[in-house]
Amino acid sequence: QVLLVESGGGSVQAGGSLTLSCAVSGYSISFASAAAWFRQVPGKEREWVAWFDRAGTPTYADSVKGRFTGSKDNAKNTLSLQMNSLKPEDTAMYYCAAGDKRGFSDKQARPPIHADDYIHWGQGTQVTVSS
Question: Fewest CB atoms within 10 A around its CB: which of 31, 54, 63, 114?
């Protein structure tokens, strides 16, 4: 059974920091062509925050670039997301995801930044940033 379990969410003031973690079991992220962090607010689509290629190289959404730093630890089978300078608009449920299910040609065409691209998901952890 594949399990992704996020932790580290909470409530902070604007300008504060949080670190999210995602522990993966039953699936080796070292073999995954992609893993990612997404976030979602009620009534809106799930949006990508950061994604990591097989080697762990991160790419960030423009909305978080320079403030968030993510990592993929293949040895520990974990993902993390260090979030600094948090803003109220960062308030969302944050999810980790792993396993790009698309075919080779689709993978070549664009990066895995859509929620539908991923096989495995965690249950989410809430981040609330107050002004």
Answer: 31
Q: How many residues does the chain have?
A: 131
**Residue 54, token pair as written in the block:** 């097989």
Q: Residue-wise pLDDT tens for the chain (131 aa)?
A: 999 999 999 999 999 999 999 999 999 999 888 999 999 999 999 999 999 999 999 999 999 999 999 999 999 999 999 999 999 999 999 999 999 999 899 889 999 999 999 999 999 999 999 99
Q: In whole angstroms, how large is the CA radius of gyration of the chain?
A: 14
Single out the residue of 31, 66, 71 nearest to residue 51, CA to CA.
71
Strands 78-83 and 18-25: antiparallel
SS3 category, 106: helix
